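Notes from the 1:1 (GR / supervisor)

We went over the backlog. Supervisor wanted to see one worked example end to end before approving the batch request, so GR pasted a single chain during the call. The sequence is below; no edits were made to it. Supervisor asked that the structure be written out right there so they could see what the output format looks like.
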Amino acid sequence: MCELIGLFLGFLSLVMSIATICSPYMRVATVVGSLITTNNFYENLWQSCAEDATGVSNCLQFDTVFAVPDYVQACRAFMFIAIFLKLLGSVCGALSATSTRFFHSHQGYTRNLALSAAGTYIIGGICCFTAISWYAYQITFEFYDPFFHGIKYEFGSALYVGWAAGTMALIGGSCFCCGSLKNIQATRR
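Structure output shown during the call:
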């Protein structure tokens, strides 16, 4: 049962991580001290957008990798690694589940797959936390920097979804570890 909960949480974490990098609202402009209040500005790892009072939005893609700040490139890499690891963990977790019976006769294979799923979920959750927290740190640094004269941004809703995705991946990996340890103890008796 613990492994099924871990598989569900890990898969949900995968979906939430994909939603995080696809959402345009990783950071949104604050209107405190701004002269222009009819426009909303928001960004993510791929584009910068502006929306006017009528609801029409114009987005500018970050065309070249060399024009993007280093922390954005690193956050992109960490998020892709997290998504890949969570996908790999979902596959390993689905193959190791007792209800799928792929390796039912080989108990060692299912245990190793479950431990692999646990490890990939946990490392994927750490990568997700690293990317989201680094991005959030940069937003906070620019917001409180008195010498920064660009647009001041605040946390967008996608950052909170990313933190929840990392948390679910860590809990899902922990559930897989607990389920695998129970199975190891049960086979030794």
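Supervisor's comment: The chain has one domain: 2-23+69-188.
Batch request approved.
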